[in-house]
Amino acid sequence: YEIFKAMNPFPVTIRLLDPPLHEFLPDAEDLAIEVAIMRERGETGSELQEKEALLKKVRALAEMNPMLGFRGCRLGMIYPEIYEMQVRAIFEAAAQCNKEGMVVEPEIMHPLVSIVTEFSFLREMTDRIAREVMEKHGVTFKYMVGTMIEVPRAAVTADEIAEHAQFFSFGTNDLTQTTFGFSRDDAEGKFLAQYVEKKVLKENPFVTIDRKGVGKMVEIACELGRKVRPDIKLGVCGEHGGDPSSIEFFHSCGLTYVSCSPYRVPVARLAAAQAAARAKGERATSSTV
């Protein structure tokens, strides 16, 4: 509610739960130490039983590669009550704002979609809850439902996804990881600097968009999405959204907004203006010739 109030009358894009579940649980190693100490002391009460049960659950949810595992929209598919709770809260806030005369337009973003049937399932759920909330409060408000394009499969099947999605936001951090097959934390800590130094890569692809690979995925998704939905809203979310060279590329693809860290916003605004000015100048020169 407070976000809608502060942003009135501008639309607000809200990404639903994205991190893997283990990030919301205690550390397994720390918990195991606590349990071991309690057993050593001879404790047998309910507190020990609760910690043992929690440890069992934490270990059950542990993943070898959580960033490619049970996260994003996959959580919403298997535990729909998580996303239903978030969507309902968003629409309840929108309804309250509507009653108070504010203009709100929530944009619900489902992350990590790779299969159109994932998105169609989540879109139906989102629309159902929107209808329920509007009927409950006797109000109507506009909203949009879209997805993040973060994996190559989503990019090359963007035409299918666009049949249901009203907007795409390119999650270029994850798209870079999944296109290269790099784990960002490991790659930057172990070999990316040497790759740049040895000129295997011209630049760190997590800083400046890799136009031949990741950028090609963006271009493919834009083209396919527009074929099905000409008015589809296209943008980018991630650190590339604050890099001037990457912003110029995104502008050439026809993306209309970037989302980045707050401290990068001034640079992003300047880079976007420069890219637009260059494009306008090139068109003027071309028409003159």
TrEMBL record:
<dbReference type="InterPro" id="IPR040442">
    <property type="entry name" value="Pyrv_kinase-like_dom_sf"/>
</dbReference>
<dbReference type="GO" id="GO:0050242">
    <property type="term" value="F:pyruvate, phosphate dikinase activity"/>
</dbReference>
<keyword id="KW-0808">Transferase</keyword>
<dbReference type="InterPro" id="IPR000121">
    <property type="entry name" value="PEP_util_C"/>
</dbReference>
<dbReference type="InterPro" id="IPR015813">
    <property type="entry name" value="Pyrv/PenolPyrv_kinase-like_dom"/>
</dbReference>
<dbReference type="InterPro" id="IPR010121">
    <property type="entry name" value="Pyruvate_phosphate_dikinase"/>
</dbReference>
<protein>
    <recommendedName>
        <fullName>Pyruvate, phosphate dikinase</fullName>
    </recommendedName>
</protein>
<dbReference type="InterPro" id="IPR023151">
    <property type="entry name" value="PEP_util_CS"/>
</dbReference>
<keyword id="KW-0670">Pyruvate</keyword>
<dbReference type="Pfam" id="PF02896">
    <property type="entry name" value="PEP-utilizers_C"/>
</dbReference>
<feature type="domain" description="PEP-utilising enzyme C-terminal">
    <location>
        <begin position="2"/>
        <end position="275"/>
    </location>
</feature>
